[in-house]
Amino acid sequence: MSEMMFKRNLTIIKRFNAYRLSSTFNIGTKPFEAIPGLSSLPLLGPMHHFLPGIGSVGLRANFYDLSKVMYERYGSIVKLDGIFARASMVILYEPEHFDQIYRSEDILPSRPGFDTLLYYRTQLRKSVSNGIYGLTVAEGAQWRDFRTKVNPALLKPKLVKLYAPVLEKIAEDMVARLKKLQEKDNYLEQNLDLEMTKWSLESVAVVGLGTRLGSLEDNLANDHPARILIQCAQDLLNLSWKLEFFPSLWRYYQTRNFKKLVKTLDLQWEVSVKFIEEAKRKINERGHDVPEEDKSIIEKLLAVDDKVAIMMANEMLLAGIDTVAFTALCLLYNLATNPKAQEKIIEDIKSSEQSNRYLRACIKESLRLFPVLPANLRRTTKEHIVGGYSIPKGIDVIAPNEFLSKMEKHYPRAKEFIPERWLVDKSDLLYYGNCHPMVTLPFGFGVRSCIGRRIAEMEIEIFINKLLSDVKVTWEGPPIQVVTKVLNSLKKPYYFKFQPVS
User: Fold this and answer.
1) In what helix (H) or strand (E) does residue 92 lie, and over which residues does it extend?
2) What is the DSSP string of 330-347?
């Protein structure tokens, strides 16, 4: 037999064996419909299981509790059929399983945003959006093009040097405001989240627009533009929760809540554009002979694409408010209930070689326990075989990261606030690297991870340093409770005390 014939036969044998193994594998693969999960009704899907009082699951306060129930009842792979026009979902509790899918889908990943916002930008207000739909709802090549244009302006390490002085001034104003407001009986118990949102809006506006909005002024009127932006962000979350996660006919006709949503989006866009135009005016007055490292984010984006700059600034004023405020509030709670950790930060602040290393570990640990988003999502663009089941194209694959992050199988003393796990060396049992890297993903995964991470961490670091330089934070009440409505939020009242220190 010639060498050529031998190689050809060897190739045929290899292909046959591969086909045989593939066929055997596929024969043993169970269909998507066989995945355990809640039973479904036509159109309503499994919705009846979540009805309070009569459903088999009931209405859970947060996604962590729901994830726990599903895991204990059905195991590591759980199916939830779609409701109305929503895609079916599968919750994967083994990090290796969603790691397999997420990495395979990470070239042009599909991560659907809010259908209502997508419809608003692509249909109702298409002329306003100008074909630019932003990071929240854009998909495919359009998303990649937008992200490619905004990455250089938002991910530069020099952002800290540029914005630190003005963010420090905002933090000082916020600390003074907290000390003063604490003297008002019970005000902060019900309104601390509002005050923290004012601080986060003021901070993100300085970073995004290069200007202060006046959010921390006393007696901020309801018609003040900053107050309107805060209210719009809160209303949009509440309305999206009702329209996206509960049965609604908004896709067939404009329901009352959908009309409210459209009105709120119109108002948010109108007010944010005014701030953006004012920022553009100041940039033009200043002139263009400005070093690149001294330019604001919007100034850099305007030099790239005017439409992209406006949409990115609008999204920062929308998405960068409640998320940063929630993260800072949770960190305050963890420091207040773990005074030794708080003391270590204070010692670092007083040190002549302040590094923020321990504070950054505290932020990571707080995000592990209290992420803004309790889960991550990818919509499959092709079939996957996971855990012996076929997951077809068009399925929303959920990674329940908050639930996994609090499991003892992944972290020792998983429900305790232990910043040291992010600092100890590899030989220590607490070392975070002993856990699968996909378990804790507070900023998302891969190319669709949060673009505002560096900015958010910078704002929080500066604020906490200023706060703990001036006050000691304590918590005088029962453990805090988390409520999930699109994003995680904290249930009132807030039992913080801010005690001035000499």
Assistant:
1) strand 89-92
2) HHHHHHHS-HHHHHHHHH
